[in-house]
Amino acid sequence: MSAGVERSPADEHVVLGKLTSPYGVKGWLKVYSYTSPMEGILEYDEWVLRHEGRLERFRLAQGRPQGKGLVARLEGVDDRGRAEALAGAEVLLPTAELPELDGDDDFYWYQLEGLRVVTREGVTLGQVDYLFETGANDVLVVKGRGEDAVDDRERLLPFLPDEVVLEVDLEAGVMTVDWDPDF
């Protein structure tokens, strides 16, 4: 599983991170990355920024780790004022530009979000709302929603292929799990 890429409301893009604030006076910005590893966001030469309802393309001029985070400079952003204007923008990537995954059992997080989660016995637990990383494994946050959900609880399921996650059918929009609905 390739972790850390979040779904964008625009179906054609995924959110790789966001620009948080200016860094210095020469147009650099602090970057919060959702990619794993966090430096993965710097591998993309062109960023689509969504800010205040608009999409705008920028070429990444430079990027590097800085302290515990990342900083980047975009072409055409050469002063603090222009950087301040972009603070808060989401960094998007067209889904068509995502790298191919290694195997059939590898998924981007955005592909799993929204899947209906069903136990091997056919009980619907709800839908995958989002995922997060822990030191041991990724965790699915499944919210009981939909008419056929057994209840309206939120469940945390470890993303453990072949143990908890038995099958992912992206075309059908269903994830089959080995999980007790009472847990």
pLDDT average, as an integer?
Answer: 90
CATH architecture of the largest domain: Beta Barrel
Beta fraction:
over 45%
Tally of domains: 2
Task: State the name of the first-level CATH class of the largest domain.
Answer: Mainly Beta
Shape: elongated
The CATH H-level homologous superfamily of the largest domain: RimM
Structural class: mainly beta
In DSSP terms (H or I, runs of 4 or more residues), the helix count works out at 2
Q: Alpha-carbon distance between the termini?
A: 24 Å
Poorly predicted residue ranges: 5-10
The neighbouring-strand order within the major sheet is 2-3-6-5-4-7
The CATH topology of the largest domain is given as Elongation Factor Tu (Ef-tu), domain 3
Question: What's the count of strands?
Answer: 13
Helix content: under 10%
Largest sheet: 6 strands, antiparallel, barrel
Rg computed from alpha carbons, rounded to a whole number of angstroms: 19 Å
- The succession of helices and strands, N to C, reads EEEEEEHEHEEEEEE
SSE topology sketch:
Elements: E1 6-7, E2 13-23, E3 28-33, E4 46-51, E5 54-66, E6 69-74, H1 80-86, E7 90-94, H2 109-112, E8 116-119, E9 124-133, E10 138-143, E11 154-158, E12 165-169, E13 174-177
Parallel strand pairs: 8-13
Antiparallel strand pairs: 1-2, 2-3, 2-7, 3-6, 4-5, 4-7, 5-6, 8-9, 9-10, 10-11, 12-13
